[in-house]
Amino acid sequence: MKVLGISGSPRKGNNTDRLVKEVLSTITVETEFISLAGKKIDPCIACLGCVEDNICKVKDDMQRLRQKIVDADAYVIGAANYYSVINGLSHCFLERFYQFRHKEGKGVCGKLGVAVGVGGRNGDPVVENIKTFFQYNQIDCVGAVTAQGVASCFTCGYGETCKVGAVYTFFGPGTKINEETTPSLDKQPEKLEEARELGRQLDARLKGFAAAT
Ligand SMILES: Cc1cc2nc3c(=O)[nH]c(=O)nc-3n(C[C@H](O)[C@H](O)[C@H](O)COP(=O)(O)O)c2cc1C
Fold this sequence. Notes:
alpha/beta; 2 domains; six-stranded mixed sheet; 6 helices; 6 strands; 33% helix; globular; binds flavin mononucleotide
């Protein structure tokens, strides 16, 4: 039994990575964490090259990830909220699951999934997107967790004065960026626990599956 944790955030080591890892932390079967940051994963180009053999023919980093996806029994997939939808890198990654759909391809169908969403405000739209991808690929969603990450406006250098940025939007004019105003997962212990609980639930489901087969 193996669970594959994927963070589709282009910011390595940030909030999405951490929340995915928090889910993995309570799983007792083998786990592997992969960050998509820095990886080249193009969108599906609808070439239909995958119809006969369920293998995508686009040549990029998804080729190396494919076998890991097929070998895993469950997925913990995390993504960041960009413009109230799943960020582009995560979207491309999930679009490429199209290769598994044809002719009732058995690469991912019937497996389990957990959706993880992080946003400057919240990750709610993201988990809805991931759940939809799960549904299309017949991955059974065990649950979802969302949390508030850190919008780039807190570190871009102009956050205190930019009128369209997250600092203004969250707190209003005159707000100083400091430890108190900067969001952090450490300030959301209930979200971290929710993530660990989802890991426990996924673990139990997997063990149930293992006992039944
Ligand atoms: C291009 C871009 C668009 C974003 N749009 C939103 C948004 O619409 N809503 C939101 O809540 N956060 C938004 N954010 C903030 C990110 O979701 C936030 O920084 C989150 O922490 C990213 O995950 P990470 O920390 O794992 O990188 C946006 C960030 C970027 C870079």
